[in-house]
Amino acid sequence: xxxxxxxxxxxASEEITEVATGVLRAQLPINLPGLxxxxxxxxxxxxxxxxxxxxxxGDDSWDALTLRxxxxxxxxxxxxxxxxxxxHFDHFGGAERIREVSRADILTHENFRNAFNSRELLENEDxxxxxxxxxEAQQRVIERIFSERLPWGSQRTMPPKKEIERxxxxxxxxxxxxxxPTPTVEVRDDETIFxxxxxxxxxxxxxxxxxxxxxxxxENGIMFSGDHVLPTITPHIGGISPEKDPLAKFFESLHKMTxxxxxxxxxxxxxQPFVDLGARALEIVEHHEERLDTIRKTAGNLPDGTVxxxxxxxxxxxxxxxxxxxxxxxxxEHLRELGELRKTESEGxxxxxxxxxx
Length: 358
Fold this sequence. Notes:
By secondary structure, the chain is an alpha/beta fold. The protein is built from nine helices and 15 strands. The chain has three domains: 7-115 and 180-276, Ribonuclease Z/Hydroxyacylglutathione hydrolase-like (Metallo-beta-lactamase, Chain A, 4-Layer Sandwich); 127-178, no CATH class; 300-357, Winged helix-like DNA-binding domain superfamily/Winged helix DNA-binding domain (Arc Repressor Mutant, subunit A).
């Protein structure tokens, strides 16, 4: 039986919609697990336009962005500012290309970082001699990614050969795919930004990533919520993070959303605009609290359980894999930080037990 698609999984529409005065929404196509589009917002003012989250790297996304801008009466050369909500490539991918054609500023939170932390792809001394689109270069990226051990000791899971070939065609193993842009404007939490003829307040919301940035317009009640709060799916919270307890940060950031009064519309990076920002944020908190309870119950019957074993208790089989393990690890580490679990390592593999089993 086919499950109905969540909003975030829907294919990108070619329609341009006005979601607030001076703010247009365009959808750019992506083909990632659980996602079918990214919302690229266009903010109009006397200088031209700013765009929020200009999609994936590569020609397909660029061509779609160009067509969407044309429908709205603009072209890439009219962009004076690119706002990137966080360091995932479906959000920053078009930023450097826009700067090349328009000399646009790239605005991020001051914590903006490489999506792969300090682990650069293709760090070999001769990597500059390789065509990044070549079979050899792509194979190096594949070998680098899938030979890596994850922080909890598991080996990355190699996708099926058919999926590898599909990713190659998309350019997913081109080293430039992961290259983050260099910000020209970095903002702090609560800093004021002037765009689209109004003031926006920068809202730092670590959790989904450590550098996640939302924008708040208190006068008109508009919140750009990025991937922090999505309408029908729960954003991924991964254990690979510079934060020692990213789930705790995520909870704090979600509760922060309940403090904003007069929210007239929330504009997410995927899915449709929605109005119940605070309530939706608390639903996401509740979802993760339920996962913590599942781990607590599982730990009572699983002494010295691995991340993989806890993952299988936490997720349905169709979701098993590296992302599910990463989210499981974040929850296990949160309970360890709370003193409810103890962690040991054996042959590089992390294991967790209920603290009261000692």
